[in-house]
Amino acid sequence: MAYKKYENSEIFDDKNTIDVIFEGEEVLLIKQKKWTTKELEDQVANLHYSGENLPKDPAVEKARLPPFALSFYKFVFFKSRLPDETELWNYYLKQHFPPVDGDSVRVYIRGVEKTFAASSVKARMLRSYPSLVRDFHFYVLCLTSDRFEHVRYSLHKDYFDGIDLCVVYAGVEFQVSILLNSPRAQMYKTQKYKRHGERSQNEVIMLFDLTRFSHEKGKIKLFSSKHVQELLEELKLRIAT
Predict the structure, then answer these.
(1) Contact call for residues 53 and 91 (beta carbons, < 8 A)
(2) What is the C-alpha to C-alpha distance for residues 68 and 19, in angstroms, rounded to an integer?
């Protein structure tokens, strides 16, 4: 029997959908999206950001809230674009909280109901927002640089292991963590590297300085191709030694 060959666009209404897979207890939706740095940078140039100098609520800062990154990357996955801060906040509320009761939000943490001021939770989210945008842009920078054999981001590895990217260079896979260069980040890097038994041999922690080589489009500073080059130089040293 001869089978007709169809293009994806002829089979699915959504031209970006490649496959839906059910396997064991996992369900996978696979989409296709070709990202470009220009596309993201144009979006960032138009983003409003109101997160500077907002007060911190100690209870909210210490609370184990649902990760903002989960809502951020789900939005990017389904919408194929960056959320602005209002879209991310509304999406986060819809995903993780019951309907907002006045100025408060309620969430269950380890089976206990907690109530927080919505403005304090939003302030914490806004402090994370530039980093989420910056890290995804850096993923696309590495992906489109054609300097790596493979580039992958995993929310699970990011949230649980602190790994921002997995890249393959010269046949070797490296787990890369990106930190903004600061005394606290330098201390973290030193402590992490002293614990040889707790880290992968191919784990790389990069301290990037945004005061140098940053790409500025709008109010959120982005990493640049210079930072990709810094990562490459570090990987070359690892391979050489």
Answers:
(1) no
(2) 27
Q: How far apart are CA 72 and CA 88, in angstroms?
A: 6
Residue type, 232: L
pLDDT digits (tens, 9 = 90+) for 33-63: 999 999 999 999 999 999 999 999 999 999 9
Strands 203-208 and 172-180: parallel
Q: Report d(CA 118, CA 103) in Å as an integer.
A: 6
Tokens of 21: 């897979």
Contact residues for 137 (Cβ-Cβ < 8 A; gap 6+)? 37, 40, 41, 44, 222, 223
- CB–CB of 66/74 below 8 Å? no
Section 16-30 average pLDDT: 92
CB 104 within 8 A of CB 115: yes
Nearest to 142, CA basis, from 40, 52, 50, 238: 40
pLDDT in tens, 153-202: 999 999 988 899 999 999 999 999 998 887 766 666 666 555 545 556 78
